[in-house]
Amino acid sequence: MRCPQCGLEAQQGAAFCSRCGARLFAPRPDAVREYMLARVRPSLWYYANLFVAGAIAIGAGGRLLYANHDLWRLGFAVMAVGVLIIGAAVLSARRVSWSVTSDRIIERRGLLSSRRREMELADIRSVEVAKRFLQRIVGLGDVTIASAASADSVIRLNDISDPDGFAETVRKARLKRLA
Q: Alpha-carbon distance 131 to 164, whole Å?
């Protein structure tokens, strides 16, 4: 390996040049593969109001069926609306995901059409964790990751479980990437 500062041929495996003291950079292997560190989705608590509305609609439809047999079509229709509301809540929770890999953070949105945003770990400026009162009660929080590359490049992870653990995973991955 040759010293980038003075050009001296240094010993194999040396970290510093013996002549000028400059740091010698070891070549990185080309076959370094990216690997997944964490993947999160919004918590179903975020959609609790839809689950409650669906359960109320199913209960109201069942009550219509039980109380008045002549209104059986209306009862089944109200119950079907309740099932559709719960199904929509589950699908809404599945349409967003965030992944942390060894090189970047990836945000995916959408079911039929999709949008993908990526942020390199080396470009991260700050990682903020916010927990509102109700989120703290159920163990949720919001994580905001800002990029140094652009002022408006921000990835927001809303209502995820263990936001502190996720922020720590991002911090460790970023430090490992910068090393």
A: 10
Buried b (16+ CB within 10 A) or exposed e, 58-88: beebeebbeeeeeeeeebeebbebbeebbee
Q: What is the pTM of this model?
A: 0.69
Q: How many helices (H) and strands (E) does the chain have?
A: 4, 7
Q: What is the DSSP string of 119-174?
A: EEGGGEEEEEEE--HHHHHHTEEEEEEEESS-TT-EEEEEEEE-HHHHHHHHHHHH
pLDDT tens per residue, range 118-133: 999 988 989 999 999 9
Amino acid at 68: N
| CA 143 distance to own-chain centroid | 9
Q: Is 161 exposed, middle or buried (0-12, 13-18, 19+ CB in 10 A)?
A: middle
